[in-house]
From TrEMBL:
The adenylyl-sulfate kinase (APS kinase) is non-functional. It is involved in allosteric regulation by PAPS. PAPS binding induces a large rotational rearrangement of domains lowering the substrate affinity of the enzyme. Gene3D superfamilies: HUPs (3.40.50.620), P-loop containing nucleotide triphosphate hydrolases (3.40.50.300), Sulfate adenylyltransferase (3.10.400.10). Residues 175-388 form the Sulphate adenylyltransferase catalytic domain. One of its GO terms (molecular function) is adenylylsulfate kinase activity. Keywords: Allosteric enzyme, Amino-acid biosynthesis, ATP-binding, Cysteine biosynthesis, Cytoplasm, Methionine biosynthesis, Nucleotide-binding, Nucleotidyltransferase, Transferase. The lineage of its organism: Eukaryota, Fungi, Dikarya, Basidiomycota, Agaricomycotina. It is found in: Cytoplasm. This is Sulfate adenylyltransferase. The gene is MET3. It comes from Psilocybe cubensis (Psychedelic mushroom).
Length: 575
């Protein structure tokens, strides 16, 4: 028998509003609308399908403050993560958002209306307090704090939703169960006890042994419930991971396990996130939930220390056990014993018995280099999937991002590099010069700081797409601002997949030389005031402090500079 939903009732808004969905869709055409962000889309899907029960909308101010301070909604029900709809002042003014107004919420992929929110209130969050209370510190090394600082808009809108339709998915549709569907599936199979396993990483033999052991000890079945929404930047993409999960499910005893995908936008909030994950799995019908060591932790903080203690998550889930009404299964670290060719919990291995392990870092190293991965660690089918998605370094794409003043020589270096890399062979080579990209991709943008930022964003997006496909990309914009260069690095590293190899090259040719040799007279025009916002004249050029290589055409020839860049790539095993 499936577990009771959190709060007692599964808030399936899709089913509740199905009889008026056509009417709501018609109404949505007459309403002001917001196009959701990727995170908001994930949140909306889990609000409307009941995964976030007892929520029926985005948090109002009273609920938000109580969740941040006390891990509870205003009515006292346990809920540890603020699920909010952020908007800008421009959104409020443009859409006339006010208490009582109705706003259509649109899917960012196809602009289909998914729901209508009836606004209860508009409020200004204390984002520093939210960071400290929810994530443990106002530290931008935490991905959700960085998101809170850079991407979350200044106001939150609270209000209940009416559901028009669920988001449409085109990938792994058969594995995308709603809570109602998964509960019905468990009932059909007569699964009375279900151990849920949360993951955002590929699974290997140790994970299979852990979950099978947990299920057998409790005479239960296993739900492999990986996150396929937003995870930690740099994680393996969900397409690769799902192919891995499908391969490893074949290794479970017949009838023991079920794979289902969870469209969750993770916050990497450690202890609070573990409680949240438990609530979500309870809503999906699970009776037991495996909580790992440093569950949903984001890694190191700005001081190089872990954000959370290794067992903080387990301790918080235990603290709220009576309210959660889902049994926590502590994650046991498994290790391989060559003498018996099996896995055992590390704390049950007798002293002196040989054990073998491969860390995540070592696994990534072996994937990059093409080194063998032993069958005691993973399965051939899993390794095959990973190797297809993560080829050896010399087959991966990369981005060479050249930044410097106008006429610093970066364009000449970029063109010479293109010829050299074409000669090397093995990859397609794309050249993205700043002015060319501006003309081809964004002729409507000017030269203000915001326009240049947008232009670099476009260059970074195109670069990430090309490098993910295995191309060598040479981009050579001026990019005078550090925030813009950081945006380019983050975009490539987060969206480039195996091609997320980014190298910042500062062409540090002195301003005097750039101006003296400027045949086109742009510096003269800038000094006369004919051109505004010109880097080096009336716009400062912020010298990069994180460049992977610094070059100067007054000190080195173009050939020497190109050779130094080729050596940089060879040092990183990319050639």
């Amino acid at each position: 028998m499936a577990n009771s939903p959190h709060g007692g009732v599964l808030k399936n808004l899709i089913a509740r509003d199905e009889h008026i969905s056509d009417q709501l869709k018609e109404e949505s055409l007459t309403l002001p609308y917001l196009i959701l962000t990727e995170r908001q889309l994930c949140d909306l899907e889990l609000i409307t399908n009941g995964g976030f029960s007892p929520l029926e909308g985005f948090l109002n101010e009273a609920d938000y403050k109580n969740v941040v301070d006390n891990l509870r909604l205003a009515n006292g029900v346990l809920f540890p993560i603020p699920v909010t709809l952020d908007v800008s002042q421009d959104d409020i003014d443009r859409l006339s958002i006010a208490p009582g107004s109705r706003v259509a919420l649109l899917d960012p992929r196809d602009e289909e209306a998914l729901a209508i929110i009836t606004v209860e209130d508009i409020y200004t969050p204390d984002r520093v307090k939210e960071a400290i209370q929810v994530f443990g510190a106002d530290d931008p090394a935490h991905p959700s704090v960085a998101y809170l600082r850079s991407k979350v808009k200044e106001f939150y809108v609270g209000g209940k939703l009416q559901a028009i339709k669920a988001p449409t998915h085109f990938d792994y549709v058969a594995l995308r169960y709603t809570p109602t569907e998964l509960r019905a599936h468990f009932k059909k199979l007569a699964w009375r006890k279900v151990v849920a396993f949360q993951t955002r990483n590929p699974m290997h033999r140790a994970h299979r042994e852990l979950t099978v052991r947990a299920a057998r000890q409790r005479q239960a079945n296993v739900l492999i419930h990986p996150v396929v929404g937003l995870t930690k930047p740099g994680d393996v993409d969900h397409y690769t991971r799902v192919r891995v999960y499908e391969a490893i499910m074949q290794k479970y005893p017949n009838g023991m396990g079920q794979l289902a995908l969870l469209p969750l936008a993770m916050r990497m909030a450690g202890p609070r996130e573990a409680v949240w994950h438990a609530i979500i799995r309870k809503n999906y019908g699970a009776t037991h939930f495996i909580v790992g060591r440093d569950h949903a932790g984001p890694g190191k903080n700005s001081q190089g220390k872990d954000f959370y203690g290794p067992y903080d998550a387990q301790d918080l889930v235990i603290k709220y056990h009576d309210e959660l009404q889902i049994e926590m299964v502590p994650f046991q670290q498994m290790t391989y014993l060559p003498s018996t060719d099996d896995y055992q919990p590390i704390d049950e291995v007798p002293k002196g018995v040989q054990t073998l392990d491969i860390s995540g870092t070592e696994l990534r190293k072996r994937l990059r280099s093409g080194a063998p991965i032993p069958d005691w660690f993973s399965y051939d089918a899993v390794v095959k999937v990973l190797r297809e998605s993560y080829p050896p370094r010399n087959k991966q794409g990369f981005v060479l991002f050249l930044t410097g003043l106008h006429n610093s020589g970066k364009d000449a270096i970029a063109k010479a590099l293109q010829v050299t890399l074409h000669q090397q062979g093995g990859r397609s080579v794309s050249l993205l010069l700043g002015d060319t990209i501006r003309q081809e991709l964004g002729s409507e943008t000017g030269f203000s700081a915001d326009d240049r930022h947008e232009n670099i964003h476009r260059i970074a997006f195109v670069s990430a797409e090309l490098s993910r496909a295995g191309a060598a990309v040479i981009a050579a914009p001026t990019a005078p601002q550090d925030r813009t260069r950081q945006l380019a690095r983050d975009t490539v590293q987060q969206s480039g997949g195996s091609g997320g190899n980014f190298f910042l090259i500062h062409v540090a040719t002195p301003l005097e030389h750039c101006e003296k040799t400027d045949r086109h007279g742009l510096y003269s025009r800038a000094r006369r005031g004919d051109i505004k916002g010109f880097a080096g004249v009336d716009e400062p050029y912020e010298t990069p402090e994180d460049a992977d290589l610094t070059v100067d055409v007054t000190q080195q020839s173009i050939s020497e500079i190109v050779h130094s860049i080729v050596l940089l790539l060879e040092t990183n095993s990319l050639l």
